[in-house]
Amino acid sequence: xxxxxxxxxxxxxxxxxxxxxxxxxxxxxxxxxxxxxxxxxxxxxxxxxxxxxxxxxxxxxxxxxxxxxxxxxxxxxxxxxxxxxxxxxxxxxxxxxxxxxxxxxxxxxxxxxxxxxxxxxxxxxxxxxxxxxxxxxxxxxxxxxxxxxxxxxxxxxxxxxxxxxxxxxxxxxxxxxxxxxxxxxxxxxxxxxxxxxxxxxxxxxxxxxxxxxxxxxxxxxxxxxxxxxxxxxxxxxxxxxxxxxxxxxxxxxxxxxxxxxxxxxxxxxxxxxxxxxxxxxxxxxxxxxxxxxxxxxxxxxxxxxxxxxxxxxxxxxxxxxxxxxxxxxxxxxxxxxxxxxxxxxxxxxxxxxxxxxxxxxxxxxxxxxxxxxxxxxxxxxxxxxxxxxxxxxxxxxxxxxxxxxxxxxxxxxxxx
Length: 416
Prior knowledge:
It is a single chain. By secondary structure, this protein is α/β, with parallel strands linked by helices. Among the domains are: about 100 residues, Fumarate Reductase Iron-sulfur Protein, Chain B, domain 2 (Orthogonal Bundle); about 110 residues, Rossmann fold, CATH 3.40.50. It contains 25 helices and 8 strands. Strand 7, helix 24 and strand 8 form a beta-alpha-beta unit.
């Protein structure tokens, strides 16, 4: 795609990245076939190709309009288009650049600015968010549906093994919302890895991965979150931790992207690259230890039940991990039902389900129809955002897959 970037961005790092991405795009349109918002709205500007044109216009110096911002806001950043693109266009990186420019040049009305400010202030602070969750559960009937939907019933964490039982040690990202919404996910991961001879521990000085503020167009604050985590984890990296385990695939994508985001930071670029290289989804670790895991499973010729697996966009399109969780679940005895349109987003997408409620609800309805078509006893996923979003619209229990493996290894069966 021929591009003439404007003076304000041409010679910057962002301009060079954007120019390279734009030149790769041949506007073939393959991406529209797998774009969830295009499938729902049928508008060229609500597909990747149309949004690329809008960003190109902005970066070439044309006026920033409400229309441009509307169509960029509607993007889920699911990266399905990146999986489909035959030219290797890094659409998500271009979108980050375009959104930052639009945000800096077009002031939002208060009805849009206030919710975003609250989300940026509350979500990345675990203590504040935890207090809000507790209050929200107490007054759930009084909350609007868009908020009440995001408050699953409390499920306490089980016991966490001692962090120094094994010489092979790994860090875990606690994150910002998961400790309050589903604290058992990391605890279950620790128990599974403990049985596999790996000690998992959290570093209390770490916090939000930076995704919340980054995708709400506050890159400066997001980078501060990233640098804080790097500083908190670095002593453990130097001590030889084998990996940094991120049980929410949405956070995993962000941590894997530290190297890209901080590439021009002279103080953090090398450390960020090391952190990104150490980042692992738990499915990668468990699959590598599959034979050992099987030795811990109760021997039975019976299926452990029918299960539908929802593959988060961040797992399949962001981390490029496909089939790992399904393999672990199948080999552990679960009967996986077929799920149509598994490449499409459920509509969660971080804060998207709050800020784009109507679209998110439509996508969730479509996704749940696919997930429940085979009458599963449980739906499994790999991301806290997807879990809470899907559970709000479904009577079938939605669980993180690692919790199910933990329960099978503990011979407790599936808890609904």
